[in-house]
Write a structure and sequence with these properties.
The chain is mostly helical. It has 22 helices and four strands. The strands form two sheets. Strands 1-2 form a two-stranded antiparallel ribbon. The protein is globular and about 75 Å long.
Length: about 550
């Protein structure tokens, strides 16, 4: 194997007939780096292994159809898969696209072989995930939402969060994006909950196809982790890179936490019907898979190389999950905005209430009344959708950096950047936009770093629109041209389903960020003060 791997390096050369154009550059340097690939994977062994894994995946797919899996799988679970399976292929494709970025900046022909194999991995992952979605669409009782999710996911209030997450793999500094953000943090840490914990929950809800596909995906991650670790050690060999590594670890960790923990936590906690008391909550899974296995076993040992680890951010991520209700706030926001999506969101029942109170003491006092209102307003009966009803919920303003709304109200931050007033869900997201993603960082020129620009915020695009026109423009309508794909319940009885006419009588949609920029300085200060005093569950601030 070693001889074959050495022979492959002979295929690498630097062309002398033209001056290479560095389309994706880096501010990192690799002058002293030891150039090794610790895994030494070659295609001779790779392709037979992947072929066997594909046989298992597609064999399980055939078995699921023959075994009538779709008659027993939980609808609540399957509906959330319309969102998940619409987003996840994009990170896979972006990861594949990010590998050539590393070819140009990492001077290691030995490691280029591993990166090329990772690129093939990522394409394979997106393929089997798309095929899984096609099977769900073909066999599930309600295919609407699966059928146009490639177009839909980048437009709705949740899919845009996933899009910015995936595009972080292919924008800005090549090492920041394709190494630190992707392989060192996303794949080494967060695929544990994404591809291991979530498949376990799928199986508990009668879905054994998703575990088959995603365990096949996860088995490739060891190679990707190896690529990232080898590049990290190369970067650590040059003292000038430590400043950038510490910057990028903080950014990469926090953005992964904001997006992955929020989304996967909602899928696992609110997309399940499995309410066994001995089942792990997402907080318990996180503590085991990420805090112990990643933070303590992977990140902390890097301190012996002199690297400053973002201990404070890891602890704050745990604090947000276990004490600040981050996942519960995320789920409530997703359900509140059901009118602007393409899947049906089941309300919580007494059994769900009991489980949440058991796992997260005090949950009912914070969120119980709102979910009871959600159930009360689930079917159209002369009232508006819950987002336009008075249920003691303040629609949140969105974070400019991670695009997750500022759900933990007391932590909101604001800044004026490039002539625009922006809101941030946390001090770290503000730092990312204001300090890290800039052409100069701590006095050092960083021309290759990215920028957070453009029409990032979903709500801005539809400010002042009628809700019926918003849904129509998004295309989230069923074949009859009037019934919405999304519903706040699982009942497919046409008499209980919401239509565009129900949306048309609602007040015009207002973007909090647009309104924030239209205020004067005193108005913005008052807005932020009131926002920070708002209570868990989006409850308004108490009158002083």
């Amino acid at each position: 194997m070693t001889k074959a791997h050495q022979k492959i390096q002979e295929l690498s050369w630097e062309p002398q007939y033209h001056e290479p154009y560095m389309k994706y550059g880096t501010d990192y340097t690799f002058r002293k780096a030891a150039k090794k690939d610790p895994l030494k994977q070659v295609l001779r062994s790779y392709f037979p292994m992947q072929e066997e894994k594909d046989h298992r995946v597609y064999g399980a797919s055939d078995g699921a159809i023959r075994g009538n899996m779709f008659r027993t799988v939980q609808e609540r679970w399957m509906e959330w898969q319309k969102l998940f399976l619409s987003i996840i292929p994009l990170p896979e494709v972006s990861a594949a696209r990010s590998m050539p970025m590393l070819f140009h900046v990492v001077p290691n022909p030995e490691l280029h072989n591993g990166q090329a194999i990772q690129m093939i991995d990522e394409v394979r992952h997106s393929t089997i995930q798309q095929n899984l979605k096609r099977l769900y669409m073909t066999n599930y009782i309600d295919p609407a939402g699966f059928n146009d999710s490639l177009r839909a996911f980048q437009s709705d209030y949740a899919g845009t969060i996933g899009r910015q997450f995936a595009e972080g793999f292919i924008t800005g500094d090549a090492i920041t994006a394709a190494c630190v953000y992707l392989t060192i943090v996303a794949e080494t840490a967060f695929t544990n909950t994404l591809f291991v914990a979530m498949p376990a929950e799928a199986a508990a809800n009668g879905d054994y196809l998703l575990p088959t596909v995603f365990h096949s995906v996860q088995s490739d991650e060891s190679r990707h982790i190896s690529n990232g670790y080898a590049t990290l050690l190369m970067a650590l060999s040059d003292e000038d890179n430590r400043q950038l590594l510490e910057r990028d670890l903080r950014y990469a960790w926090w953005n992964n936490h904001c997006v992955v923990d929020g989304a996967i936590g909602v899928f696992i906690e609110y997309g399940t019907k499995d309410r066994r008391k001995d089942r792990e909550s997402y907080a318990e899974m996180w503590r085991r898979w990420i805090y112990d296995d990643y933070y303590r076993s992977y990140l902390v040992p890097l301190e012996k190389y002199g690297l400053v680890i973002p201990h404070d951010l890891i602890e704050e991520a745990w604090n947000r999950i276990i004490n600040k209700g981050y996942i519960h706030e995320f789920a409530q926001f997703a359900a509140a905005g059901w009118v602007a999506n393409y899947w049906r969101i089941d309300g919580m029942t007494d059994q769900d209430f009991e489980w949440f109170e058991y796992k997260y003491p005090g949950w009912y006092d914070k969120y119980g009344a709102w979910w009871e209102n959600y159930n009360r307003l689930a079917t159209p009966n002369g009232h508006n959708a819950i987002v336009a009803e008075d249920v003691d919920y303040v629609y949140p303003i969105r974070c400019w950096t991670c695009l997750v709304p500022c759900l933990i109200r007391a932590d909101i931050q604001t800044a004026e950047v490039d002539g625009q007033h922006r809101a941030y869900c946390s001090e770290t997201c503000k730092w990312t936009d204001v300090t890290a993603f800039r052409p100069i960082y701590q006095g050092r020129e960083t021309p290759n770093m990215g920028r957070l620009t453009g029409l990032r915020e979903w709500e801005t695009l539809y400010h002042g629109w009628n809700w019926a026109d918003v849904v129509g423009d998004l295309g989230f309508v069923r074949d009859d041209g009037k019934t919405m794909i999304s519903q706040p319940h699982l009942d497919l009885n046409p008499k209980k389903m919401w239509t565009l006419e129900h949306m048309r009588r609602m007040p015009a949609f207002q973007s909090p960020l647009v309104l924030f920029n239209e205020m004067d300085d005193a108005g913005r200060a008052a807005f932020v003060d009131d926002y920070r005093r708002q209570r868990p569950g989006g409850k308004p601030a108490l009158s002083s």
